[in-house]
Every structure is written in C-alpha cells, then in structure tokens.
Amino acid sequence: MKEEVSGRGLIGKSVIGKSGKAIGVVTDVMFNPETTEIIYLVIGKITNFGKELNFKRVGDNYLIPFEAVVSIGDFVIIDENQVIS
Length: 85
Description:
Blueprint: H1 7-10, E1 14-17, E2 22-31, E3 38-44, H2 48-52, E4 56-58, E5 61-65, E6 69-72, E7 76-78
C-alpha cells in the first residue's frame, strides 16, 4: 500500500518515466469523492515522449492513473508500461 500523499503536494512536480524520460508536470489531481483516494494525476506541459504514451486525454490535459506511480519525491516517477496499450 502506498503512503498517504497530499494531492496539493503533487501539483507542480515533474513526471518522469522509469526510463528516465520526462513526461510532463502535474497540474491537478482527480480523486474518488467517496474514498478521497487519488485516481488520476492531471498532466499539463506534456512532452513529445508523453504524447507518444497512451494516456487518457481530457481537453489539453492528460490523465495518468495513480496506480502507475512508482515513487514520489522531488519528481513523480511512473511505470510507463502500466499506461501503454
């Protein structure tokens, strides 16, 4: 189980894939209102590499399932294989 994470604390963090490639920046989070668990990271300023991945898209933003998050520190690291179709 993942440690508790503040959605507000994620906003502005760069998102990096396990491959080391930059993906974008967290601009918001989406959460389940019943459980208050984060379900998606909303990504803006997406890189060309990020555009190649099969993220769900809403307008100009991309959604990364929170379950793809591997680590959170100075950056948010995700496993790209969990979001590629």
